[in-house]
Amino acid sequence: MLRKAPPLLLLAGLLLASGCGGSSPSQATSGSSAAAGAAPEGGAALSADARSAATGDIPDTQNFLTLRAPRLRVSMLYPEGWTVQERGSSVSIADKNNLVRISVSGATAPTAASVQADLSTLARSTSGLKAGPARAVSLKSGPAVRATYTTLSAPNPVTGKQVTLTVDRYELAHSGRLAIVDLGTPVGVDNVDAYRRMIESFKWQ
């Protein structure tokens, strides 16, 4: 004969099951978090999700919020409605396959040669990555090095199609800290003006 479990035990079991679903990001807005969660930390390449639809151009009327990452001690504007996820020494901001990642570490100031060498090393371990030349640029936050690379997503498991991302990488240094800012968008989507506004708003805290 089956015995009914006491109500308190049933309640405890439900609470335990609901608590095992994973932790929520430290800071988030509405939108898809799958792409942001897939982005690795550090200087690794951004990775698109072949199962995620491409996002359209960011409109001129887009409202921007200020991202404040106390752990990284940086701030930057980002489009309202995008998902924000802070993980260790990096923070990812995403809306489907529009991907932005900021990572901060202790390192010396970058040069065009060092950034080019890093991307060449990355290309040997990342299938489909192609990097253009790196060059010094001037941002409102100070001098930086900029390079552009493209990457391919893994094939869609159903259609076999791949998504190509174009990524603008900026490396900036301040007081012994190095920030790598990757701003990626699917090929065919024009986010040049919005991404320029974002990188120009970057500030050290």
Radius of gyration: 20 Å
User: How many β-strands, per DSSP?
Assistant: 11
- Residue share in helices? 10-25%
Overall mean pLDDT score? 84
Percentage of residues in DSSP E strands: 35-45%
CATH class: Alpha Beta
For the sheet with most strands, the description reads:
8 strands, antiparallel
Individual helix count: 4
Order of helices and strands: HHEEEEEHEEEEEHE
The outline comes out as: globular
Class of secondary structure makeup: alpha+beta
Q: Which regions contain 5 or more consecutive residues with pLDDT less than 50?
A: 1-40
Tell me which oligomeric state these chains represent.
single chain
Tell me the CATH topology.
Protein Transport Mog1p, Chain A
| Name of the CATH architecture | 3-Layer(aba) Sandwich
Our measurement of the CA-to-CA distance between the termini, rounded to an integer number of angstroms, reads: 66 Å
Name of the CATH superfamily = Mog1/PsbP, alpha/beta/alpha sandwich
Total domain units: 1
Describe the protein in words:
The protein has a single domain (27-204), classed as Mog1/PsbP, alpha/beta/alpha sandwich (Protein Transport Mog1p, Chain A). It is of the alpha+beta class and 205 residues long. It has helices at 7-19, 34-38, 112-125, 192-200, and strands at residues 64-69, 74-79, 83-87, 90-95, 98-106, 130-131, 135-139, 142-152, 164-174, 177-186, 203-204. The strands form two sheets. Strands 3, 4, 5, 6, 7, 8, 9 and 10 form an eight-stranded antiparallel sheet that branches. The chain has a three-stranded antiparallel sheet with strand order 1-2-11. The longest helix has 14 residues, at 112-125. The protein is 20% helix and 36% strand. β3 (83-87) and β4 (90-95) form a beta hairpin.
